[in-house]
Design brief:
about 300 residues, Quinone Oxidoreductase, Chain A, domain 1, Rossmann fold, 2 domains, seven-stranded mixed beta sheet, six-stranded parallel beta sheet, globular
Length: about 300
């Protein structure tokens, strides 16, 4: 099968499309013929050598496609089914991928839109679970307009929370459309949030990793009411929880998102798609930070 791989660390130019042996599913896994695979910031961090030291490496933790092989013990899904999900192997940017956690593609979505869901929805749900966001909560999201931030906005609103979110001025209308109350990034952030919530907020989620943790701690009344997805160093310095999948993934979110989409309570992010062979260009665009929504690779 064709797959994305790199054999040295560096810029997007180190990415290659190579031939690798076809994978086969283990117990509880399904194999899919990939139709679309998501691209995430962790991909270029891996490519730059910031996450894992071994070489060579494959890429991709989320994909959507058609089931073509079942692992031992798999029930409730058949060969030919349209599914999306998460790959524990980190090799989903390929013609074939093994999914450890998966759900049916919502009827109204195509494969690229479905491939944009797993990481953002799982990450946002995990953070909201860790913060205990529920009905009556006031949540501030630092970095609310990206794929994870916008997912967190919508999922928090479904839970009955009030959501205030920071974004650039150009994205304020988008946040209002989702149902959040927007404020602008940068100096004076806490004051702008307090103008909307004079007593501060119940909990805060840092998606942007922009050095705002001290302000978030002040707004939420303590480090225990803050979770960051992006500032590992700051989390250690300020005693804030850094959320990662290592402590357990919120995989229940994959099975729940379809109903929310079909009922109109969740709008998937816009998708910017590239052929698999143009993965380097997708990395360049993502690293420049000018993407609204989600980068997806088209396969097959």
């Amino acid at each position: 099968m064709k797959a994305v791989r790199f054999s040295r660390f560096g810029g997007p130019e180190v990415l290659e499309i190579v031939d690798l042996p076809d994978p086969h599913p283990g117990p509880g896994q399904v194999r899919i013929a990939v139709r679309a695979a998501g691209v995430n910031p962790s991909d270029w961090k891996k490519r730059q050598g910031l996450m894992d030291e071994e070489l060579p490496q494959t890429l991709g933790y989320e994909a959507a496609g058609v089931v073509d092989e079942l692992g031992e013990g798999v029930a409730g899904v058949a060969v030919g089914a349209r599914v999306f999900g998460l790959s524990a192997e980190g090799a989903a940017q390929a013609e074939l991928a093994l999914l450890s956690y998966y759900a049916p593609v919502p009827p109204s979505l195509d494969f690229p839109a479905a491939a944009a869901l797993p990481s953002a929805v799982e990450t946002a749900t995990r953070a909201l679970d860790q913060l205990g966001v529920g009905s009556g909560s006031t949540l501030f999201i630092n970095g609310a307009s990206g794929s994870v931030g916008s997912a967190a906005v919508q999922l928090a609103l479904v839970r009955g929370a009030r959501v205030i979110g920071s974004a650039s001025a150009a994205n304020h209308d988008y946040l209002r459309l989702l149902g959040a109350e927007p404020v602008t990034y940068g100096e004076g952030l806490a004051g702008r949030v307090r103008a909307l919530a004079p007593g501060g907020v119940d909990v805060a989620l840092d998606v942007a990793g922009s050095g705002a943790l001290p302000e978030l701690i002040g707004l939420a009344g303590g480090a225990g009411h803050v979770v960051t997805l992006a500032d590992f160093v700051g989390a250690r310095e300020h005693g804030v929880r850094f959320s990662s999948g290592d402590a357990g993934r919120a995989v229940h979110a994959l099975g729940e998102i379809g109903e929310l989409i079909e009922s109109g309570h969740f709008t998937p992010p816009a998708v910017q798609a590239f052929p698999l062979a143009e993965v380097a260009e997708a990395h360049r665009m993502g690293e420049q930070g000018h993407v609204r929504g989600k980068l997806v690779l088209l396969v097959g």
